Amino acid sequence: MLLPILKYGAAELKKVSSPVDFFNGELERIVRNMTETMYAAPGIGLAAAQVGINLRLSTVDLSVGEDEKQFMVICNPEIISAEGTQKGEEGCLSVPDFTETVVRPQKLIVRAQDIRGDEMRIEAEGLLARCLCHEIDHMNGVLFFEHLSALKRNLIRNRIRKLARAGEW
Ligand code: NI
What percent of the chain has pLDDT over 90? Predict the structure, then answer.
């Protein structure tokens, strides 16, 4: 089932999400719907908060459905170590049509749980490292453009406000 993706301005996107503490058919159902929604968008990552579900949960697939080995369900992730920096364009399904250059770590080690609750350790680099940081931010109520300067943040907020006034957001 496709879920509506919340856009910047929705209160749910600003909340800190709660840990996933059930690994059962209910979680499988949520993940199935999130995966379908992520692929339909299309996007490389979707956090539960973006569909109004207050859980530290994301689906990630850099191949957007082309390579099943790249599909991941990430529950309760924690960054154990980060190394280096990378600069790159970043966007978000909750902030459609906006991309900005965001600085992120080049390499990460993340500890998380999979859909069964088993612990996993992800060694990520490049785009995957960027994507995981972006997803963990969502779980903490942070959107990508909040990493920019106050000036750039305000420019984006004003453009979105204008779109909202015109009924286009
Ligand atoms: Ni996002």
Answer: 100
Section 113-118 average pLDDT: 98
Chain centroid to CA 84: 21
Choice among 12, 66, 135, 146 that is catalytic: 135
- Distance (angstroms) between ligand 1 centre and the Cα of 79 equals 18
Report the separation in Å between the CA atom of 94 and the middle of ligand 1, taken as the mean of its atom positions: 6
Tens of pLDDT, residues 134-157: 999 999 999 999 999 999 999 999
Name the class of domain 11-165: alpha beta
| Token pair of 98 as six digits | 């906006």
Alpha carbon distance 69, 66 (integer Å): 9
What pTM does this model have? 0.97
160, 169 in Cβ contact below 8 A? yes
SS3 of residue 1 by DSSP: coil
Q: Which tokens sit at 158?
A: 């004003």
Ligand 1 midpoint to CA 42 (Å): 12
Type and span of the H or E element at 101:
strand 100-104
Interval between CA 48 and ligand 1 midpoint (Å): 10
What integer pLDDT is reported at residue 93 of this predicted model? 98
Whether residue 135 lies in the annotated active site: yes
